[in-house]
Amino acid sequence: MKYARLTKEQLEELHVEFTNFLASQQIDKTEWDELKVAKPEVAEQEIDIFSDLVWEGVLKSARYIEHFSKNHIFLFQFDETDIDTIVLKTSNEEVDFLTKEGLQWLGDHLVNDQVDIRYGSKAFGGDRNGELFAIIQQGGILSQGELYHQIKTILKK
Q1: What count of Cα atoms within 13 Å lies in the side-chain half-sphere of residue 131?
Q2: pTM of the predicted model, to two decimals?
Q3: Strands (E), 43-145
Q4: Per-residue pLDDT averaged across 93-115, rounded?
């Protein structure tokens, strides 16, 4: 398995897609129910293959990831070959970017000695989707890139 198995909730949400996947494997509902009982390891392999296909599709179309921690915000933008990163960091230990108040503080103090903003860019090391998945595994969430573009616009001024 290249990525991670989808959770039960995710599989339930993708029920129609999973049914179509099983049909493409020439497995109908009766066969699937029998497979789960008689050969659970084979059923798990099918779930793993489906999970990888879903992750591959999600990662291929992804363009932005955000990762928030108490004192850092990492904003990623990427295409097929490169990843750009904006890192916002505060030296103020009382600020918590995981709270609404912390984000409000950031908005009010963005251009301030207590906020350090860094920008960088690099080429992917070879496995673009693997690198993106690693960021997600560390707590990154897929986004539409609004915050990335807001900060990048400020940096251009």
Answers
A1: 18
A2: 0.84
A3: 64-68, 72-78, 82-90, 115-123, 141-142
A4: 90
